[in-house]
């Protein structure tokens, strides 16, 4: 009798207080989401507070320049813009070779604010675009994780993403790159896909296609979406989890999403002609066959169904074979089998180093080290396995997608350090699930063991949560073969079974979700101890910018504070945002003797070029600095960071690797007036051109065979000291970097290579130094004009007329490429 009374009390409590409870919970969730958005925005503006509102890195300067053109000329001029200041003398069609999502977004923000009479410069709009979209990405993570494991897990995942260092590294204020908006589009697309999968709503399916379209406009990483979702759909079909909701979630995405993607100029027919998209079409055919089989199963008798299935499977196999044959014919004509170079380097990590050295030369395309994971996702690396286990308890369509997402992103992040950015949302989602489930177990365990809580109160909460969960599961596990007639009877049957045995179900749920009080207390103490130990190690070895204290003192201090993993995570993220990722690449700084020293050599050099050279002069450098030169110096460059023409880049690499005279011939043939190099030997800046020089040799040698890497190595080692090879000591890069370097300290000691250079005293014959920045980081040279050389041989005894005729019939001009 007591069990029945407690069950009735629980039902009455559920009916009367459910509305108010949900309303209060929703308001609290929205308020927490607002705070998370403010946190995500605030933690990313350290760069503006510490330095100034400035664009970071290299690629963002091109995006900023394009956004300036868009706001001045308009959208139609943008689509038809041919830029003759890049890749001279080839030029570049900007509208058809860029992903326009970022520039259109920042341009729209600038236009909207100015329409509201809020005067804002284009640069300011570009600087703060990434922090704004980081808040949106946090909210999108809430949407994704909420659809998998509830609002608690969603709020936890959103909080983790707002502060994860991997995402902060590409979304600080001033990091105006494609990833600034693309990560939001990625998470939002996945969230809408899961929402459609849970609800079967065509409205959310349409929104999902539009989100995918925005992702295609924003970043080339959209191919990850159009391959991951088909993998999940195929997994559901193979494991027998097909439903009409799965069909609605996938079919509109392929049809509408592909049509929208093909309308983006930079993608065009690649949306249907490249191997990155073929998996989605093949799975689309498979799901059509499966849907048709389930449809005829409901309208035919079992005997006729077997005959129809045989026919449908035969036709389906024939269609699949025909499609596969067409795809094979398409990819067979391509030397890369229809895959792009970056995609092949992901599938085969050794491909880029073998065949495309220009991709392998980029530092963010290198594989990460284990400390990189600890730096970029921190304690989430230890929470991810627990989150994966929680996704299997129980396994649903949504949780299986999260498991597949974390598995694929973990693989790709292991191939390319840049893709740690794609791993971050998956790690935050799974970690949020793990923390939410653990918190739920601990709170239930403590609640069951408290002596002041009555059994009736516990039963009320357990019964209400159980009923809500059963209703949720019943709505998400709808089978396609169920008809509208037998659903009410099954529901009533479940309700009767639930009313008959409420005590047994509650007891079983308690045993599964509750821990003994001693185990709960021990687990919490272990978490506190691990958090304290982590903080001790972190402060002792990395120092967080503070002075190092004795280890014993730190142990006592942080044991008293009782910091847990969440506090550790917050401390690490704030340090990463304030110190590791806030400094712009164009302004370098370091602390010494309690003072902040700033190196502003890059902007000093670009300002000199802008004010002291003609507007039509051509400037040559390595491709890393092309975007900055065009945007900040407003001068024509030979190559830039787009790297679309490997031969052009190899030409510059060949010039840098050649002797001075041969290099002058190459640059003169390209109408170059100025050449600059980045040199860090004086101040210890490691990312200079001498350290990048071997990549110039490899890229140049890949096109021009007379450039051989072995000629620049001494017994297989790269040296610039007295043991360096003559080819190395006489190449243009060496001379432009170390010209007059001995005048700085009398020894010509290179602080980056930590040795004295081999060739200290030499003169330039075809180049002249015109400007060197304050810290010798940027060295600018001008090509000397060609001499008035007499072609052919003349004799003094011949008359002048004979000399003139002889000068006209001169020998052939030497080929500058050999």
Automatic annotation (TrEMBL):
What this protein catalyses is: a di-trans,poly-cis-dolichyl diphosphooligosaccharide + L-asparaginyl-[protein] = N(4)-(oligosaccharide-(1->4)-N-acetyl-beta-D-glucosaminyl-(1->4)-N-acetyl-beta-D-glucosaminyl)-L-asparaginyl-[protein] + a di-trans,poly-cis-dolichyl diphosphate + H(+)
Q: Which enzyme type, at the first EC level? A: transferase
Q: In which pathway does it act?
A: Protein modification; protein glycosylation
- Main localization (coarse): endoplasmic reticulum
Which keywords fit this entry according to its UniProt record?
Answer: Endoplasmic reticulum, Glycoprotein, Glycosyltransferase, Magnesium, Manganese, Membrane, Metal-binding, Transferase, Transmembrane, Transmembrane helix
Domain Oligosaccharyl transferase STT3 N-terminal residues, every copy: 27-428
Mind telling me which residue stretches traverse the membrane in this protein? 27-49, 93-113, 125-144, 150-168, 180-205, 211-235, 247-272, 278-296, 308-332, 379-412, 512-536
Q: Where is the signal peptide?
A: none
* Gene3D superfamilies for this protein: 3.40.50.12610
Composition skew (Basic and acidic residues), residue ranges: 476-487, 496-505
Task: List compositional bias (Basic residues) regions by residue number.
Answer: 789-801
Q: Could you name the Gene Ontology cellular component terms for this entry?
A: endoplasmic reticulum membrane
Location in or out of the cell? Endoplasmic reticulum membrane
Membrane topology for this entry? Answer: Multi-pass membrane protein
* MF annotations from Gene Ontology: dolichyl-diphosphooligosaccharide-protein glycotransferase activity; metal ion binding
Q: What is this protein called?
A: dolichyl-diphosphooligosaccharide--protein glycotransferase
* Organism field: Hibiscus syriacus (Rose of Sharon)
């Amino acid at each position: 009798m007591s069990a029945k009374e407690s069950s009735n009390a629980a039902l009455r409590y559920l009916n009367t207080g459910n509305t108010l409870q949900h309303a209060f919970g929703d308001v609290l969730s929205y308020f927490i989401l607002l705070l998370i958005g403010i946190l995500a925005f605030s933690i990313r503006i350290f760069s503006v507070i510490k330095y100034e509102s400035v664009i970071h890195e290299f690629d963002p300067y091109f995006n900023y320049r394009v956004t300036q053109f868009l706001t001045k000329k308009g959208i139609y001029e943008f689509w038809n813009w041919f830029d003759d200041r890049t890749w001279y003398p080839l030029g570049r069609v900007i509208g058809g070779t860029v992903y326009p999502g970022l520039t259109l977004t920042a341009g729209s923000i600038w236009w909207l604010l100015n329409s509201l009479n809020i005067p804002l410069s284009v640069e300011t709009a570009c600087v703060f675009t990434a922090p704004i979209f980081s808040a949106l990405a946090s909210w999108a993570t809430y949407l994704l994780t909420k659809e998998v494991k509830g609002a608690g897990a969603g709020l936890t995942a959103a909080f983790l993403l707002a502060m994860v260092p991997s995402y902060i590294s590409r979304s600080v204020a001033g990091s105006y790159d494609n990833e600034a908006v693309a990560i939001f589009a990625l998470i939002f697309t996945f969230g809408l896909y899961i929402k459609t999968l849970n609800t079967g709503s065509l409205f959310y399916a349409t929104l999902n296609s539009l989100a995918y379209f925005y992702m295609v406009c924003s970043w080339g990483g959209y191919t990850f979406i159009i391959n991951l979702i088909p993998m999940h759909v195929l997994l559901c079909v193979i494991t027998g989890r097909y439903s009409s909701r799965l069909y609605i979630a996938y079919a509109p995405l392929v049809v509408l999403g592909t049509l929208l993607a093909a309308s983006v100029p930079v993608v065009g027919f690649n949306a249907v002609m490249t191997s990155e998209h073929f998996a989605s079409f093949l799975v689309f055919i498979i799901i059509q066959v499966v849907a048709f089989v389930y449809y005829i199963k409901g309208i035919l008798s079992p005997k006729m169904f077997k005959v129809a299935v045989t026919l449908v499977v035969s036709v389906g196999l024939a269609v699949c074979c025909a499609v596969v044959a067409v795809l094979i014919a398409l990819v067979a004509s391509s030397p890369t089998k229809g895959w792009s170079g970056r995609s092949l380097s992901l599938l085969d990590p050794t491909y880029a180093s073998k065949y495309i050295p220009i991709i392998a030369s980029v530092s963010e395309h290198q594989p990460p080290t284990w400390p990189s994971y600890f730096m970029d996702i921190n304690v989430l690396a230890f929470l991810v396995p627990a989150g994966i286990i929680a996704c299997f308890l129980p396994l649903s369509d949504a949780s299986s997608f999260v498991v597949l997402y974390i598995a694929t992103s973990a693989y790709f992040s292991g191939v390319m350090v840049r893709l740690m950015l794609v791993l971050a949302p998956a790690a935050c989602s799974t970690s949020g699930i793990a923390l939410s489930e653990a918190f739920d177990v601990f709170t239930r365990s403590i609640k069951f063991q408290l002596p002041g809580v009555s059994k009736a109160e516990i039963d009320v909460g357990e019964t209400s949560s159980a009923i809500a969960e059963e209703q949720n599961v019943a709505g998400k596990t709808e089978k396609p073969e169920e008809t509208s007639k037998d659903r009410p009877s099954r529901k009533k049957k479940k309700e009767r079974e639930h009313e008959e045995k409420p005590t047994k179900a509650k007891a079983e749920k308690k045993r599964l979700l509750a821990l003994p009080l001693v185990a709960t207390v021990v687990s919490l103490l272990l978490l506190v101890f691990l958090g304290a130990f982590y903080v001790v190690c972190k402060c002792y070895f990395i120092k967080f910018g503070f002075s190092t204290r004795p280890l014993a003192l730190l142990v006592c201090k942080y044991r008293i504070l009782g910091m847990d993993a969440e506090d550790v995570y917050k401390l690490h993220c704030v340090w990463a945002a304030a110190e590791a990722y806030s400094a712009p690449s164009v302004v370098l700084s370091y602390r010494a003797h309690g003072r902040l020293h700033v190196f502003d050599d890059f902007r000093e050099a670009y300002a000199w070029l802008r004010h002291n050279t003609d507007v039509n002069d051509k400037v040559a450098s390595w491709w890393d600095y092309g975007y900055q030169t065009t945007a900040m110096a407003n001068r024509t460059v030979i190559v830039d960071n787009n790297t679309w023409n490997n031969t052009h880049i190899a030409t510059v690499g060949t010039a840098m690797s050649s002797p001075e005279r041969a290099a002058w011939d190459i640059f003169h043939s390209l109408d170059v007036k100025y050449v600059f190099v980045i040199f860090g030997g004086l101040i210890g800046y490691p990312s200079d051109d001498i350290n990048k020089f071997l990549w110039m040799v490899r890229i140049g040698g890949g096109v021009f065979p007379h450039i051989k890497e072995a000629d620049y190595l001494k017994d297989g080692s790269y040296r610039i000291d007295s043991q360096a090879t003559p080819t190395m000591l006489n190449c243009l890069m060496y001379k432009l970097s170390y010209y007059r370097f001995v005048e700085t300290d009398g020894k010509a000691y290179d602080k980056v290579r930590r040795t004295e250079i081999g060739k200290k005293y030499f003169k330039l014959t075809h180049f002249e130094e015109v400007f060197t920045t304050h810290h010798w980081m940027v060295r600018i040279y001008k090509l000397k004009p060609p001499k008035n050389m007499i072609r052919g041989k003349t004799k003094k005894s011949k008359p002048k007329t004979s000399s003139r005729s002889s000068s006209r019939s001169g020998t052939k001009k030497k080929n500058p490429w050999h």
